[in-house]
Amino acid sequence: MAGFLLYFILIAMIPLWAQMKVKNTYTKYSKVASATGLTGAQVARRILDDNGLHHVDVVETRGVLSDHYNPKSKTVNLSSHNYHGHSIAGTAVAAHEVGHAIQDGQNYAFLRFRHAIVPAANIGSNFAWIAIMIGFFTQISGMFLLGIILMSLTVIFQLVTLPVEFNASSRAMDQVVALGIIRNDEEREAKKVLNAAALTYVAAAAVAVIELLRLILIFTGMQRND
């Protein structure tokens, strides 16, 4: 019993720690003004235009750290603080989201694959635990296995997300350095913001994989009991 409690505390703490890390890092560097004084919106527009993505719009969106790229509407959506602000954090976040726009424009394979498996991943996230719970309490191994298969779809999505996010950050750093948007020590500070944000995806993937492995072990135990 103690082992199970420790396990659930562990998988709960990993994403919480990652979220606290990104929040603290973002808060710190959102107070540090960039040397160029460019707003997040200006940073995004400049990188987009330099890459020939004139058709991609930069729009303001509500919320905190709600920044994202929408491939359907072809828009880089920046939260108000990043859209209007001129901080190192806002610069890094804006450049990262434009990194996704560049991926989209260049048909980046991992991004295309992630988009393609979204419907399957949604089905998995909605129905996996239903099948698992039914299979566990009825001891119907086939139903439990179905739940594992459905959950594996969401795990695949989480794993594919990692190269997409890391690649977007890499593109972001290349762009802001090449265009002179950040200078000197600002590069190190921008990397800290991007690395902290990446931790949330790594944590989510790690928890998903650990949980999937646990369920596979339970399934093998059910098979032996049969």
Automatic annotation (TrEMBL):
InterPro entries: Zn_peptidase_2
Protein name per the record: Zn-dependent protease
UniProt entry tagged with the keyword Cytoplasm: no
Entry keyword set: Hydrolase, Membrane, Protease, Transmembrane, Transmembrane helix
Pfam families in the cross-refs: Zn_peptidase_2
GO terms classed as biological process: proteolysis
GO molecular function annotation: peptidase activity
Organism field: Falsibacillus albus
Transmembrane segments: 116-137, 144-164, 198-220
